[in-house]
């Protein structure tokens, strides 16, 4: 066993533990510690548990202008993050439904049919429903999928309706009526585009008057309007503590004020869930006609390359209440946060620096620990040479070339020793890292 073997073992242990936690354990830790609100860990008694995913917005060349190999690398690492997160979410929380709040792709509205289909299959490979008999999936459209208002891209809308599903949906769960409203087309002045959404709002308004009408949860991609500067609460990560009512090419941060008031009056939701902003935000609206208060929860983006440091999702629990009406239906929502991916990469960089320093220290220690022996041998050789040349008055000649070469020989083992340690550590760490990355493409 060469002297640095113990260092190799310690470094291998460090890397194995770090990679297992950074690529696997941290996902189970973060998802595992964020449980269903209201203690609804076990299904039953009519309780519905819905996972809410906002803005996966899978990266493509419309995202950051990347092309070629760099784009493929970014796509791979952003995709695997969301894939792992979604797998673990299904395994640990076991929701009965998952609602995607739109912006499934980044450049969805821009793609031609062939490219869009390729990207859609990529999206499907990331968000696989591993419990199709137990979990239903509902996918809404976002402005990155179809556009918004008068700039809705009609071919993109038609493609979404054909390949993904309806942009307006209603279903019941846990004693509530869940309304997934396409507010993107609702903002269009073109009746051909907006009629479906307008008719749904009218139908919801009529249903509200019927006997036995259930309480409602409204889902919308774009958040509702609120007064400027309304604080978003303590879970927001942005330095800006409020949404800004701004708009531009194919985006609008909030619905119009009059649209918001109309929706609150017509639908009268108990709560609103929205996406689009990529960060968490909780505000409370007042229904103008009744004074009823309705909280709105904006869910942060599910991916780590969305501009918000830590990705997140929501867990929504719906309790139907008692049959005798003594206990009314109630809901609870919890914002949950996924691993901080850039932080994980910083751990790896720190471990790499520690590995290089440990290898260098071990290699530096080894040649100098044997330096006394080498110096003794050089001194003995010099004494013998001095005796042989004394008669020729060569006592003060420079140290022989063989002795000078010995100093260089003392340096070479240092480099070889350090490199050997790094290579042996990498022989374990690199294959383990690759295996952990690919693991979630196999399971």
Automatic annotation (TrEMBL):
Q: Identify the Gene3D superfamilies for this entry.
A: 3.60.21.10
Q: Where is the Calcineurin-like phosphoesterase domain?
A: 49-278
Gene Ontology biological process: GPI anchor biosynthetic process
Protein topology in the membrane: Multi-pass membrane protein
Q: Show the GO MF annotations.
A: hydrolase activity
Name the residues that span the membrane.
345-364, 421-442
Membrane found in the keyword field: yes
Q: Which GO terms describe its cellular component?
A: endoplasmic reticulum; membrane
Give the source's domain of life in one word: Eukaryota
Is Electron transport one of the keywords? no
Instruction: Specify one Pfam family.
Output: Metallophos
Which keywords appear in this protein's UniProt record, sorted alphabetically? Membrane, Transmembrane, Transmembrane helix
InterPro entries registered for this protein in UniProt: Calcineurin-like_PHP, Metallo-depent_PP-like, PGAP5/Cdc1/Ted1
* Compartments (UniProt record): Membrane
**How is this protein named in the record?**
Calcineurin-like phosphoesterase domain-containing protein
Taxonomic source organism? Coemansia javaensis
């Amino acid at each position: 066993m060469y002297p640095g073997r113990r260092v190799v073992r310690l470094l291998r242990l460090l890397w194995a533990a770090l990679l297992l936690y950074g690529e696997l354990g941290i996902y189970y830790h973060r998802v595992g510690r964020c449980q269903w609100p209201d203690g609804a860990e076990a299904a039953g008694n009519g309780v519905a548990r819905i996972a809410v995913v906002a803005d996966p917005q899978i990266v493509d060349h419309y995202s950051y202008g990347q092309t070629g190999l760099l784009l493929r690398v970014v796509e791979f690492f952003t995709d695997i993050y969301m894939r792992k997160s979604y797998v673990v979410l299904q395994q640990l929380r076991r929701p009965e439904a998952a609602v995607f709040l739109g912006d499934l792709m980044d450049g969805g509205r821009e793609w031609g049919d062939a490219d869009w289909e390729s990207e859609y299959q990529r999206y499907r490979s990331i968000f696989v429903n591993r419990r199709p008999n137990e979990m239903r999936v509902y996918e809404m459209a976002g402005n990155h999928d179809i556009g918004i208002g008068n700039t809705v891209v009609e071919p993109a809308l038609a493609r979404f309706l054909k390949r993904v599903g309806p942009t307006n949906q209603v279903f019941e769960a846990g004693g509530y009526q869940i309304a997934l409203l396409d507010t993107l087309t609702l903002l269009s002045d073109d009746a051909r585009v907006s009629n479906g959404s307008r008719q749904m709002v009218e139908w919801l308004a009529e249903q509200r008057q019927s006997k036995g009408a259930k309480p409602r949860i409204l889902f919308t991609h774009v958040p509702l309007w609120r007064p400027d500067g309304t604080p978003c609460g303590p879970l927001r990560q942005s330095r800006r503590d409020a949404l800004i009512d701004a708009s531009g090419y194919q985006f609008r941060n909030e619905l119009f004020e009059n649209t918001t008031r109309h929706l609150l009056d017509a639908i009268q939701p108990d709560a609103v869930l929205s996406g689009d902003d990529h960060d968490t935000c909780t505000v409370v609206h007042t229904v103008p006609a009744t004074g009823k208060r309705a909280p709105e929860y904006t869910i942060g983006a599910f991916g780590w390359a969305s501009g918000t440091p830590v990705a997140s999702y929501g867990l929504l629990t719906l309790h139907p209440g008692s049959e005798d009406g003594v206990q009314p239906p109630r809901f609870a929502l919890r914002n949950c946060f996924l691993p901080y991916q850039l932080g994980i990469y910083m751990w790896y960089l720190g471990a790499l620096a520690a590995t290089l320093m440990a290898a260098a220290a071990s290699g530096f220690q080894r040649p100098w620990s044997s330096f006394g022996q080498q110096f003794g041998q050089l001194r003995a050789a010099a004494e013998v040479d001095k005796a042989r040349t004394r008669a020729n008055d060569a006592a003060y000649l420079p140290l022989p070339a063989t002795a000078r070469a010995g100093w260089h020989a003392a340096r070479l083992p240092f480099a070889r020793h350090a490199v050997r340690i790094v290579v042996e550590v990498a022989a374990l760490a690199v294959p383990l890292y690759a295996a952990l990355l690919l693991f979630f493409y196999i399971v």
